[in-house]
Amino acid sequence: MRLRNAIAAVAAGLTLLVLAGCANAGASPKNGRVSPELRVAAAATLRQAFEELAPTFERKNGANITFDFGASGMLQRQIEGGAPVDVFASAGAKQMDALLAESLVDSATVAPFASNRLALVVPANSTLALTGFRDLVSKRVVRVATGNPESAPHGATAFEVLDGLGLLDALRPKLVLTQNAGQTFDYVARGEVSAALVYVSEATGRSEVKVVSVADPSLHKPIRYEIGVTTGAPDSTLATAFVTYITSAEGRAVLKKHGFVLLQ
Amino acid sequence: MQSMSFPFRLSMQVAIVSTLLVAVVGTALAYVLARRRFPGRELLDTFVTLPLVFPPVVTGYYLVGLVGRRGVLGRALHAAFGIEVSVMFTWYAAVLAAFTISLPLMVKTARAAIESVDTEMIDASALLGRTEAETALRVVLPLAGKGIMAGVMLAFARALGEFGATVMLAGNIPGRTNTMPLEIYNAVLYGDWRRATVMVLFFTVVSVALLLAAGRLGRVLA
Q1: Segment A207-232 mean pLDDT
Q2: What is the value of ipTM here, to two decimals?
Q3: pLDDT in tens, B7-29
Q4: From the CA of A175, how many Å to the nearest CA of chain B?
Q5: Do A151 and B68 touch (CB under 8 A)?
Q6: Which chain B residue has the Cα nearest residue A73?
Q7: A118-219 domain in CATH 3.40.190.10?
Q8: Count of domains in chain B?
Q9: The CATH number of the domain where B28 resides is what?
Q10: In this predicted structure, what is the pLDDT of residue A65?
Q11: Between B166 and which of A129, A258, B97, B129 could a Cys-Cys bridge form, CB atoms 3.0 to 4.6 Å apart?
């Protein structure tokens, strides 16, 4: 009797495993048909824009997009480590160049598609009355969030700007370094920090924060968003179609709406 | 390889401070739970045990809701004294996280030890005229000493390895709040496996040693 129960339990367990495995396999059933899966790793700052663009692309191509948003540097290292990604969109040329050098991205598909500006942002209900970057050294400003420059491009830009303005040493003790732009935004939106340095697109259309000032572009290296298809992508046609879509007029319009600066 | 001395020193500092607090608060709580009867006793025990059962990030979530700028304490302090005090993103936050997470281990172990003290000894002490406080300090705690020490060691090991609540409360700020577990996470994330391995080996050795020592001191995990 006990042996039979054991066999039944094992059989049930194996069945569950097999079902789970089918569900997780590269394809997902939609209306009984199997849709191709497209895995896109994109900079955290692209979240709102890409999530708005995804449904149209999914409909037109019968595909299913899975996004992985995070700091460009972290995504780059994950791709280097073998993470399954079809399309990579980074907030910096540096990360894309690193992958190109390792032939992890198809150079024929790589295209710059947007730029951005660095903004000084405060919580919407902030009473600090800051007027510009230099006000950050004031004692009333307790903590300032920005990305870890080693992996988050907006942090690298912020460090460049602060250094250029001669404020970096004074502000270093106040800096709270985050993993990615989403976290930077979250900290300032919740008021855990007095202010944040993040790309202006992150603040566009978000009522929890307000922009105090935008950095002079001459203070930092140009911000270049680049997108490309990885060399390991199983369906490079679909992946290339996504890149084309992002760089199309429709893609550019949505990016502009979300505060990105378009490249000419 | 980048120096690991800061994460190491920070982890030690946080774990030691946290464990000192846990030793005092935990022993007091354990004594009260073991030796006193009062309404809501088991409710208190449940409450103290929660961080043991919760995923650490859930404990972290609640702690942020407590000490975050818009949290319960944050808002109360601001309303009462007009001050904006926040421990978030400081090593105090790491201590708070480690304290909350390791307290239940201490309380459970110490309570068991105190409950196992021969009540005849306690009664004898009372008969001889000692107050409860004197009895507690001179008779109960020394007799439960080994179990309490075991609890302290377990709490220290747990505090050293705390990650989920720490990352939510203190953030993962290089040079400020990147404790060793966070640094291991960073190393793996950035593909620096050698760095990660060195730190993991350190943790393995320390944790095994502490566990063996705690086990020797009492029937802790029976």
Answers
A1: 94
A2: 0.73
A3: 999 999 999 999 999 999 999 99
A4: 9
A5: no
A6: B190
A7: yes
A8: 1
A9: 1.10.3720.10
A10: 95
A11: B97
* Nearest neighbour of B69 by CB, restricted to A77, A81, A192: A192
Q: State whether A190 and B190 contact (CB < 8 Å).
A: no
Q: Which helix (H) or strand (E) holds B109?
A: helix B91-115
- Which fold is adopted by the domain A40-114+224-257? D-Maltodextrin-Binding Protein; domain 2 (3.40.190)
Helix (H) or strand (E) holding A20: helix A2-24
Q: Which of A77, A81, A176 sits opposite B89 (nearest CB)?
A: A176
Residue B137: give the domain boundaries: 5-217
Helix-helix angle B193-217:B145-160, to 10 degrees: 170
Give CATH 3.40.190.10 domain extents, chain A: 40-114+224-257, 118-219
In a domain, B72, yes or no: yes
Q: Note whether B89 contacts A: Cβ–Cβ < 8 A.
A: yes
Residue numbers in B near A77 (CB within 8 A)? 189-191
Examine residue B206 and state whether it is found in any structural domain, yes or no.
yes
Q: Is B50 a member of any domain?
A: yes
All residues of chain B having their beta carbon less than 8 Å from the beta carbon of residue A175 are: 173
Report the SS3 class of residue A145: strand
Read off the amino acid at residue B127: L
Mutate to test the interface with B, among A68, A77, A177 (most CBs of B within 10 A): A177
Q: How high is the mean pLDDT of chain A?
A: 90
198-257 of A, contacting B, C-beta below 8 A: none
Between positions 120 and 149 of A, the ones with CB within 8 A of B are 142-143, 148
The one-digit pLDDT tens for each residue of chain B (222 residues) are: 567 889 999 999 999 999 999 999 999 999 999 988 999 999 999 999 999 999 999 999 999 999 888 888 888 887 877 666 778 889 999 999 999 999 999 999 999 999 999 889 889 998 999 898 888 898 899 999 999 999 999 999 999 999 999 998 998 888 888 999 999 998 887 778 899 999 999 989 988 998 888 888 765 444
b/e string for A126-148 if b means 16 or more Cβ within 10 A?
A: bebebeebebbeeeebbbbbbbb
Distance (Å, whole) CA B104 – CA B49:
5
Give how far A192 is from chain B: nearest CA, Å: 6
In a domain, B129, yes or no: yes
DSSP H/E element including B84: none
